[in-house]
């Protein structure tokens, strides 16, 4: 029975282990682009733009409609007609009903724009609209990549800090065991044992706080990539490497999707202005219809041939609409479009300034982080050496407990500073890659 329980527990542990998903940065970004709502909605907008183009194109195609009607006239209207036309005395009036009790008609109508400047402008704008949504999809994906990458490194760094806290806790527990043994043998004071016990308790509390922080940041990462919260994830080791490959001397704003989107928006507003101006142009269209009219004393759909009389009819016409005066409505819309164009021009200037500002800050942060990483790495190595020497001196009675605790605190602080410097470097590196317009390369 015990063997069965052991086997069952091993199977459960194996299943749980299999459920843990190792998540590299590339995996996280790919998952986000395939599953996050923002990415899916951006793709749907591109798909929907094709339908919008078809809607505009329809205005240039023939419009065909079928119409039908059935009317019953319980009381026919009587008209006063001169009696002499019907053989009556001069000046007499005859009241004659016009029409029939039942009337039915079926008509097919056709209309076709021959010249409509608004339609021509709309077709040009429709193609630009598709390009606009395509660029917007790219921008949405880049924003998602940036957000996921930042969150990913936040998780990794917090996990590293948790690992440091656990390592320091284990190290301090070993020191506590040594001091307890010395105390039991009368070689250490009770206050020293109490002080190291308090240090262990504080480290355990700090570890729990970091454990909670890791869980919260992992949940945030899962949310950003659209992953179910119940899915366990594991980040591979050595996710942060420090290189200077991303460094450039000047921001390449011409490659930025934000600028391309604003330029396309400017083009669309230009088309909008032209569409308003097209309202000054005449509109020429062709119309045609053909139909049948049935009249009689009985319902046409079921009446006998002698009770219903059917006749066909047709017409073809040209329609010309020439706008003369619209109360300055068109002029007002054109001027509003001009203001919108000026506003987007200011947005382009401001965005270019903001992109340069972000790049310069990121470049400065990158340079500082590279220097800081090297410094903090040396500090951490030195603090580790100092702690090892202090431990040996304490065991041999050559150092006080205060010196030992100070050495442990110095090592913990140096390790955390080194990890934080790595995070600052990666965040700055992401901004540099963004300024080059190469965020999508993180996925490839």
UniProtKB/TrEMBL annotation:
Secretion signal span: none
Keyword vocabulary terms for this entry: Cell outer membrane, Coiled coil, Membrane, Transmembrane, Transmembrane beta strand, Transport
Cross-referenced InterPro entries: OMP_efflux, TolC-like
GO cellular component, one term: cell outer membrane
Keyword Transport: yes
Keyword Transport appears in the UniProt entry: yes
Single GO MF annotation: efflux transmembrane transporter activity
Residues in coiled coil: 193-220, 334-431
Family note: Belongs to the outer membrane factor (OMF) (TC 1.B.17) family.
Localization (cell): Cell outer membrane
Name of the molecule in the record: Transporter
Pfam family, one: OEP
């Amino acid at each position: 029975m015990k063997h069965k329980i052991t086997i069952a527990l091993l199977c459960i542990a194996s299943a749980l282990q299999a459920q843990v998903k190792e998540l590299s940065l590339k995996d996280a970004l790919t998952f986000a682009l395939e599953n996050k709502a923002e990415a899916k909605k951006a793709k749907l907008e591109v798909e929907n733009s094709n339908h919008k183009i078809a809607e505009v194109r329809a205005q240039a195609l023939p419009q065909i409609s079928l119409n039908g009607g059935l009317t019953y006239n319980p009381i026919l209207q009587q008209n006063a007609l001169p009696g002499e036309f019907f053989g009556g005395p001069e000046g007499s009036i005859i009241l004659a009903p016009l029409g029939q009790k039942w009337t039915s008609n079926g008509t097919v109508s056709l209309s076709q724009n021959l010249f409509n400047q608004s339609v021509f402008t709309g077709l040009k704008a429709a193609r630009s609209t598709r390009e606009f949504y395509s660029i917007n999809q790219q921008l949405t994906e880049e924003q998602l990549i940036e957000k996921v990458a930042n969150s990913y490194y936040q998780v990794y760094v917090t996990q590293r800090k948790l690992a440091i806290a656990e390592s320091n806790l284990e190290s301090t527990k070993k020191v506590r065991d040594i001091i307890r043994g010395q105390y039991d043998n009368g070689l250490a004071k009770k206050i020293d044992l109490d002080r190291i016990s308090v240090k262990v308790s504080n480290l355990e509390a700090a570890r729990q706080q970091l454990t909670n922080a890791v869980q919260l940041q992992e949940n945030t990462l899962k949310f950003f990539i659209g992953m179910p919260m119940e899915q366990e994830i594991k980040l591979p080791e050595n996710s942060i490497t420090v290189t200077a490959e991303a460094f450039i001397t000047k921001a390449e704003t011409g490659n930025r999707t934000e600028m391309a989107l604003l330029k396309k928006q400017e083009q669309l507003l230009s088309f909008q202005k032209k569409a308003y101006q097209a309202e000054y142009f005449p509109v020429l269209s062709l119309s045609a219809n053909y139909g049948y009219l049935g009249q009689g004393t009985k319902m046409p759909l079921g009446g006998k041939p002698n009770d219903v009389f059917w006749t066909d009819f047709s017409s073809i016409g040209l329609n010309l609409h020439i706008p003369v005066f619209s109360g300055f409505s068109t002029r007002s819309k054109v001027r509003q479009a001009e203001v919108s164009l000026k506003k987007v021009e200011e947005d382009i200037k401001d965005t270019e300034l903001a992109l340069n500002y972000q790049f310069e800050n990121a470049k400065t942060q990158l340079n500082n982080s590279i220097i800081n990483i090297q410094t903090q790495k040396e500090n951490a190595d030195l603090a580790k050496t100092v702690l090892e020497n202090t431990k040996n001196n304490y065991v041999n009675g050559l150092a006080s407990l205060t010196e030992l605790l100070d050495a442990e605190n110095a090592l913990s602080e140096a390790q955390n500073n080194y990890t934080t410097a790595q995070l600052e470097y990666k965040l700055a590196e992401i901004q540099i890659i963004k300024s080059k317009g190469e965020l999508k390369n993180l996925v490839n």
